[in-house]
């Protein structure tokens, strides 16, 4: 418990409002999950950073990047990291339950409805419209995350370059996403380690 309370105190010092209980985690991620139709990142950003204020914008950017590299759904991975950060294993379990219980019930119901009305022209049109909206939400979230670029240890130019490269590699050249992420993740990690070393030496922390 000491480490958990220390994490919560540290979060408060950073200007965020950590969840008060496991129940709050469960409810928060349940509400997040039932909103995440088609685009989880924008909803997760709004709920965790803007509404609940459980984490900061720059922390969300880092956590979401890690969640994308891990196997499994990105939103589930993010919920596990956030829950574990504040309440350890119990927090991770509460977050996971919140992300899965209600969505499973809703998904089963929607699947049954879709199976019944999938040939209807209005349903097909609605799905196309939802895809466009989801793309717009993702772009909007990316623009919001730009505010954290200036505080990145990688440097503004490098961070922008690392953001553009996967778009070009996957969207234009159609390279496999997994290999693009692995190469860029290793490159970004090496560069960040190098930059932190330079900063430490400048401050006289490395002898």
Automatic annotation (TrEMBL):
Subcellular locations according to the entry: Cell membrane
Keywords per UniProt: Cell membrane, Membrane, Transmembrane, Transmembrane helix
Superkingdom: Bacteria
Membrane topology: Multi-pass membrane protein
GO MF entries: chromate transmembrane transporter activity
GO cellular component: plasma membrane
Chief subcellular location: membrane
Transmembrane segments: 22-45, 91-114, 126-146, 153-170, 176-193
Similarity comment text for this entry: Belongs to the chromate ion transporter (CHR) (TC 2.A.51) family.
Record protein name field: Chromate transporter
Species assigned in the record: Orrella marina
